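Aim 2 progress update. The chain analyzed this quarter is reproduced below.
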Amino acid sequence: MSGAVHLTRLEERFGAAPAIEVARSGLRDVSDRAWVVGGAVRDAVLGGDVVDVDIAFAGDVAAAARGLASEVGGHPFELSGDFDTWRVVDHDGNWKIDIAGLRGGSIEVDLRLRDFTVNAIAVPLAGGSPIDPTAGLHDLEAGILRACSERSFADDPLRVLRGARFAARIGIEPEPETVALARREAPRAAEPAGERQFAELAGLLSGPEPLAGLGMLDRFEATAVVLPEVAAMRGVGQSANHHLDAHDHTIEVLRRALEVENDLPTYCGDAADAVAELLASPLADELTRGDALRWAALLHDIGKPATRTERDGWVSFLGHDAIGAEMVAALCRRLRTSRRFAEHLAAITRDHLVLGFMVRERPLPPRRIWDYLSRTAPQSVDTTLLTVADRLSAQGGGVPEEAIEGHLQLAREMIGAAVAWEREGPPEPLLRGDEIAAEVGIEAGPALGEAVAELEAAQYTGEVTGRAAAIEHLRAWSAGRR
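Predicted structure tokens:
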């Protein structure tokens, strides 16, 4: 592709990007000292949409950020004092602009200090030809990931994870020397702050090719460093029902989760549209519930190495769900995720076996549906989808096809009920706790909590529909417990 074609495509994509328009307007008086760099240039060259913009600036970054915010009505704040970086965000969330101080005294030197050649391309903010001292445009066209220098990973070992993320995002292949450089610094990949590691891993897993990204982490020999819980599953043999070890089974579950994600009507039936909406909804840490489901697929069995036992040739992992939930919580603390994200993942991990034990009870009576939903809410849909991927991963193993199909049928039924629960919540109680205590004679404490739950179950199943019936039901229930 010629330079003229690159320039035409860049201006076309930049012209359609609100963040570029805002930056050009708000920084017009200092545009001769500002360059668009990094991902915005890379994505524009590839013909993608430009959403967020990074700007290298020669001058007072704080003043430029405040001036930009004042001019266009955004909110400025310091992103990193160590790296002289400020962020300006739109109050309505339509755009985000990061401004960083120019390193090395010139834009050419600044670009050579960056991570990969495909990210070391700059365009003057006011417009003009790309500045490309490391031949990043050539590498983009060739699909090559190349470190800018021998010190790229040594200067910031987080770049080991970033390279894997690019594999997931844009399908780019590292050249041999870059792989060697990454492996050399891989033991240091967990040195950067946990939230920086999490951001790269989250981008990897939420990208269009998360399996390729995880494979790249393996090639860089970084998995055991940043995700030791996942690496520990390698070689952990399973029972005859599984044809893969715990690690390869996990990768297969993720692959199946992606399959489910891309074909919701098959696995969710009439609830497919509602499930798609739920998975697209924000959860935490700028991730959706669908993104979190991919994390759950990767982490749901990390308790297996610690719980594996074998007797007379039979392998079991008793308690790996509970232990795994604790490990997920610890991993999230290490990566400094939000509490909401951590609790969401831990809950799915804790409950991912529940539905499988209910398959033999089909058709489930309403009480058992309530048992499942009340236990797994508000992650009922997410947990059920994970069980589908988990069960599909057993194809090729020792699980009969009819057992797999029975699980899938039950999951479709449960997902419909879970969507309704998510939309409407549990029934509005016919009696408050204090009213139950007064009418039924149950003192405050665990028994009263059980009575509240019993009433909710009876209402959900339609066993009681009014206040008088609720009192009568709880009196009989209480008497039967004595």
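Residues 401-424 form the longest helix (24 residues). The chain has four domains: 1-139, 143-226, 235-424, 433-480. These observations will guide the mutagenesis experiments scheduled for the next reporting period.
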